[in-house]
Amino acid sequence: MMSVCKMNKQIFPTFAFVVVCVQFTCQYTTANGLTSKVLITNDGPTILGATTTFTAKLSFVNETVKTLPSNKTAKGEPTYLYAYYWKQWICDEYKVVEIKQNASCNFTQTYTCSGDIGSHTVTVDVRKNTFIIKPLVTSNTTAFQISEHINANLSVKQGISCNSSYGAETCNVVATNKSVDMVVDIHDPSNFFKGATLLYHWRFGDGVADTTINQPAVSHMYKKPGHYGITVNMTAIFPNDAEGEKQRQPKTGNIKKNLHTMDAVRNLTIKGKGNFPAGVKESYNISCLASLPVEVCWYVIPITTHTLLTGYSDTIKCNQQVLTNRTWFEIHQWFNTSGGYSIGVRAQNTVSNANSNKNVHVEDSANTVVGLVIGVLFGVAGCILCAAVITSHMRGHRQRHVEVANFDFQSQAQRSLTLGTKIRQFFSGGSREESMPLSQDFNRNQTV
Fold first, then answer.
1. PKD domain: from which residue to which, for each copy (predicted)?
2. What is the CATH class of 266-363?
3. Are strands 251-262 and 173-175 parallel, antiparallel or unpaired?
4. What angle do CA 293, 298, 304 make, to 5 degrees?
């Protein structure tokens, strides 16, 4: 390995010589020309009084095991190849801490001065751990926040998945009339709050009474769609310390989160005819109840065993439509081939989705025409029959009777014949009217 620098030489009487090397570069390379870099991470943000941990990891571009220097002596004893210099302003003083390590180095710092509150930076210089001159290998800086209040996050979830975006760590939109799980996660990597009593005061923003509990999780249900502001106030009360130690003051903090609630998709229906002949264009009304906007996908497919068993599939071609100002729309479909069809609809908004389908039967046009003709023929035959019966009945009423001496020559049986009897006689082949027998009383009647 080599270091790039400029040197000045000066010989003293008591020493053979002393070499003073003033380094002007900040880049250190190996003999193989590998460029180095260091990555710094921290576990901030940090609350005042807590400890922050920093980690520096040294690496080389295109590094391999063979090109990295050995971290052991010839006798196999461990040795430190690098010196890490951690530099920062803390409590209004500039401090530098040297730690000798190899490819990685950890550094911890406790912050207790109020002057450190706010944005804070720490720089690390990595130098070659040589005896006299320590050439700079690489350098980097990390930044974090120091706060006097509790640092925490509020996560909101509803069920297994957050919403239709699926997989989000926290929900910004949830469904109404369903339980919403809320959890406060206090950031405390150094266990600063270990042993403290934590109280959580919840305000849900929908008019429901506030609640204070000693647990970081709660469930709540919103009844109406809208926008709500959630606020959680946290208080940490520390126990009495050992005798002689200063009592720690309570710590406070708050979290605010805006939440949007929507009505889930429900009552998805398809209204229209279920049976009709082929070769016609039918209309169907599709409607649902939901908060807008609603994305709708509808399709028409022949009914087969496969579709009956598996239902909707992602391979089915859908007609997309987005509803922004209403929750209904009409579709129009031509049915040119007879058979069974399934009309399917999928509707979804940000918080839910729903499916619905309607089976219809399309009749063959030829069978429809034959059925229509047969129906017409039966209708015509019935009309002719009724006309014949009515005509016969009217003729019987118009038959002339001549009475002599005010006597009726029709028999009692003829006078009592009803319309139904005459119809039966007509179809049985009998005479339309009975012969009128001559009266037996020749002295008082005569035949005309």
1. 195-235
2. mainly beta
3. parallel
4. 150
The answer to whether 436 touches 409, Cβ cutoff 8 Å, is yes
pTM for this model (two decimals): 0.66
Q: Which CATH fold would you assign to the domain 6-147?
A: Immunoglobulin-like (2.60.40)
Give 188's contacts (C-beta < 8 A, 6+ positions apart).
47, 50, 194
Per-residue pLDDT of the chain (448 residues; tens, 9 = 90+): 333 333 333 333 333 333 233 333 333 444 344 588 999 999 999 999 999 999 999 988 655 444 455 555 555 566 888 999 999 999 999 999 999 999 999 999 999 999 999 999 999 999 999 888 889 999 999 999 999 999 999 999 987 656 544 445 678 999 999 999 999 999 999 999 999 999 999 999 999 999 999 999 999 999 999 999 999 999 999 987 666 567 789 999 999 999 999 999 999 999 999 999 999 999 999 999 999 999 999 999 998 755 544 445 566 788 988 999 999 999 999 999 999 999 999 999 999 999 999 999 999 876 555 556 677 777 788 788 888 778 777 776 655 554 544 545 455 555 555 556 655 665 555 544 444 444 444 344 443 3
Tell me the CATH number for domain 152-262. Answer: 2.60.40.10
Partners of 56 in the β-ladder: 40, 105
Q: Which of 91, 82, 89, 36 is nearest to 59 (CA)?
A: 36
Bridge partners of 87?
A: 96, 123
End-to-end Cα spacing for the chain: 155
Contacts of residue 57, defined as CB under 8 A and 6 or more positions apart, other chains included, come to 38, 39, 103, 104
What are the residues facing 77 on neighbouring strands? none
